[in-house]
Amino acid sequence: MSDITQRLVDFVQENLVLDGDDIKVDATTPLLVSGLLDSLRTARLLNFLRKDIGVTITAAKLDPENFRDVATIVTMVRELQSA
After folding, report:
1. Which of 10, 32, 53, 81 is 20–30 Å from 21 (CA)?
2. Which residues form the Carrier domain (predicted)?
């Protein structure tokens, strides 16, 4: 697992999974279908990506398909980093 993937998995597990929810997050956990991402949590995730990963997600990338799971987010982050 890459460093970015691990950091994102840890962030989601620690900051987006509600207390009492029995969800163990990995790179393929469906974030939208499971309800882990709503508008507020998405804003927190975008802030984490900007501050801690150093990538600003452009408006063009704010598509639900880019936030299916951690692996999909990492792919998007790598694309933005190489652009």
Report:
1. 53
2. 2-81
